Amino acid sequence: MNIKKIFLTIIAIVMVTAGGWAVEVEIDGINYNVVTRGKAATVISKKDTRYTGDVEIPASIIVEEVEFTVTSIGEAAFSGCTGLTSVNIPSSVTTIGNNAFWNCTGLTSVDIPSSVTTIGGSCFSGCKRLTSVTIPSSITSIGSGTFYGCKSLSSVNIPSSVTSIGEVAFSGCTGLTSVNIPSSVTTIGNEAFYGCTSLTSLIIPSSITSIENKTFCNCTALTSVNIPSSVTSIGDWAFSGCAGLTSMIIPSSVTSIGQSAFSVCTGLTSVIIPPFVTRIRMSTFEKCTGLTSVTIPSSVIYIDPYAFQNCTGLTSVTIPLSVISIGDYAFNECKGLTSVVISSSVTEIGAWAFYDCAELADVYCYAETPPRTRVYYEKDIFYGSYPEFSTLHVPTSAIEAYRTTEPWSKFGTIVAIDGIEPVVPQCEKPIIHFANGKLSFECETEGVEFVSEITDADIRTYYSNEIVLSATYNITVYAQKTDYEDSEITTATLCWIEAEPQTEGITDDAVSVKEVKAVPVLIQTSGTQLSIEGAPTGAGIAIFDLNGRLIGQTKVAATGITKLAVPSGEKMLIVKVGDKSVKVVK
């Protein structure tokens, strides 16, 4: 009798379960766990030794004259196999387990077949020589730490089937220079691209609503980032240490920015904080040494400790009439700061808030009662800023109060101001135009920059065999300018409608050929007024609410621009121009 057969039979008897029996076998140097029910085999780790060289996993194996299909690579199956140079994964495999190729430092490339639907967490973590990997469109998520520390990986193509990228998924991929994030991705986990020091540019899709903690922290080569208007929050340390960033446009949709979100972004020169942020959190812009200007909106109530510490390039700052508290060390070591305006709403200033601002020449404080200040180690908020050589500007009626209250009394000169609070002006709301195939923006405020986003109503993922295209574009734009608040957002819809058929010059002897001309129409709203530009003269216009009630109707004027009054309470309208119906956000 075959001794090996007897041994397997004994093992099978010992491991009998309700689901059949399971046994571990080694065939051609590869260890498997086989289960009789389902006749499936899983590649497992090799006892006492490690896999080396080139490993080819078969699609099936024969055990006791029974064929088992190899359907998975088990957890830690090749973990720590530093001598493994390549692996061939058959199309029978559907699952690759957690840590399957963890720390396989000799592995240079992996081709994952389209049969695989699941790649486990930390699967290729520590594969520092892995230069390329193919992620099939059968994968819907990239797990936590999947490619952590793959230092030689230079580019990654993420298929449009993927909806989530897990925590630290590509963290420490120091050779990664480019990565595409498709619009199918809705979540990117904490530290997903932490320390990708070669990554130079990035486009975040409009499917993302939140940038999580440390997502792009220490991406030192990153020079530009496009944050879409879908994003409402930026997490702690999200872009901390991105020293290559020179400018950052934060859309007005963002209402929350985490602590240290942009700390040590030494190349950042200017920042306009969005108009709905209520708190500048701890160390948000700490050590942004290249920062020369910052606009704090009137929505901000608290400036937390260390918020702008060591921003040595900052020369002036205006605290708006909304802030009630300035935290400890908030502007500590801002050595280039020469002027500070503190509004009358500020009631408390933390310890060392303006410590070591040696160039500070003028402080304007509009509070009738001197704000409370904290002392730390017997050093006040202006320690090291030489207030004895500076001028304090305060309301006339409060001069005596400041002269008798420390540390305000330390100023060498205290003079009266007119009592009128400086108001940060707001950019005028822009107007959108379309002519000669180009969009243009106009604003009454001179010298502004326009921040716009255009989304095509047709750009989305489809799975059917027919797609109806609407040829409709949604446009948003707002104006921004240093020392100004962002303007209100202007929204518009650009669509194409069919004009009257054209026949001139295109008939022949047998038949008259009609050419239908599509003309661009721009629809935009401002307050309670809706304007339509570009529609053919005489075309009928009707406006309905979402319940189908007619709100107003008219015909296009000869001037080419038609305006109608609409109710203020309606947030969305249906506008019918000729035979074209368009949904418009008001």
Separate helix tally: 2
Tell me about the biggest sheet? 8 strands, mixed
How many DSSP-defined strands? Answer: 47
* CA-based shape: flat
Q: What is the averaged pLDDT score?
A: 86
Helix proportion:
under 10%
Chart the SSEs and their pairings.
Layout: H1 3-14, E1 16-17, E2 20-27, E3 30-35, E4 40-44, E5 53-56, E6 60-63, E7 66-73, E8 84-88, E9 95-96, E10 109-111, E11 118-119, E12 132-134, E13 141-142, E14 155-157, E15 164-165, E16 178-180, E17 187-188, E18 201-203, E19 210-211, E20 224-226, E21 233-234, E22 247-248, E23 256-257, E24 270-272, E25 279-280, E26 293-295, E27 302-303, E28 316-319, E29 325-326, E30 339-342, E31 348-349, E32 362-365, E33 372-373, E34 391-395, H2 399-403, E35 413-417, E36 431-435, E37 438-442, E38 449-456, E39 472-480, E40 490-498, E41 518-526, E42 529-533, E43 540-544, E44 550-555, E45 561-565, E46 572-577, E47 580-585
